[in-house]
Design a protein that fits this description.
There is one protein chain. The protein is of the alpha/beta class. The chain has 2 domains: 107 residues, no CATH class; 155 residues, NAD(P)-binding Rossmann-like Domain (Rossmann fold, 3-Layer(aba) Sandwich). 40% of the residues lie in helices and 20% in strands. The protein is built from 9 helices and 11 strands. The chain has a 6-stranded parallel sheet with strand order 8-7-6-9-10-11, sandwiched between helices. Helix 6 packs across helix 7.
Amino acid sequence: MTADKNQAQSKLISDAISKVLDEGSVAVLATLIDATGGESNIAVGAKLLVNESPNRIGSLGASDLDAAVAGQALTFLVSRREAETSRVESFAPELGHYSGARVLFERIAAEPRLVIAGAGHVGASLARLGALIGYRVTLVDDRAEFVARELFAAPNEQAIELVLAEHWSDAIGESIGNGRGVSVAIVTRGHKQDEDCLRAAIATRPNYVGMIGSKRRTNFVLDKLREEGTSEDQLKNVHAPIGLDIGAVSPEEVALAILAEIVGERRGGKGAPLSSWRRS
């Protein structure tokens, strides 16, 4: 491939990646990192971007290799891993003429977002913990004193977006946006606030929605939305009560239990002890 074509392809891929990040969607960037055993038409550094559609941008240098790598890219996407390397022979043994070639697959997605409804003790603790592990956090409350910047003054808390809600449903809907890559934790102080936030969250279809409270309290809210016509398919995706059962007591422990479930859902984890195999 000529230098001009290389530059043009790089620009196309760069623009496509920017679009993926702006839209909150996801894609896979496949880069040829070893061309050993391959034909002369492939070269180390060639790139192919594959989105969920799946549309392809760029090329590794051969149509049959592009098709095989695009298929493996979609498999990689389902795995929820961030990156992995694979030899072509492991996923396309029929392409013996590329058997020694190796491809790096990388997930392209915007940083995960966490929208928290309610800035009480649990919500504030969850915001701090979420920011600490790399989530872009938005903390919403209708009480100005609970979303004051001086409460979140530590260096790693500066990026937490603080939103004073005039109307809960409007503030939550605007904070969630298109819902892609967004987890929503509803930890407000009462039924009415829970209803407003959950109603708004369900409408945006984020990746995760959870609501704090006892079984009685959460069922009360879910039943109210059911009576309004919210479908069972939408309601069954609500994690209520929110979080994993770790015996949490303090606000910080409850926040940890909530974030553990959110991370597990995002990464495809099971929430079981890693040592359980020893006792089976």
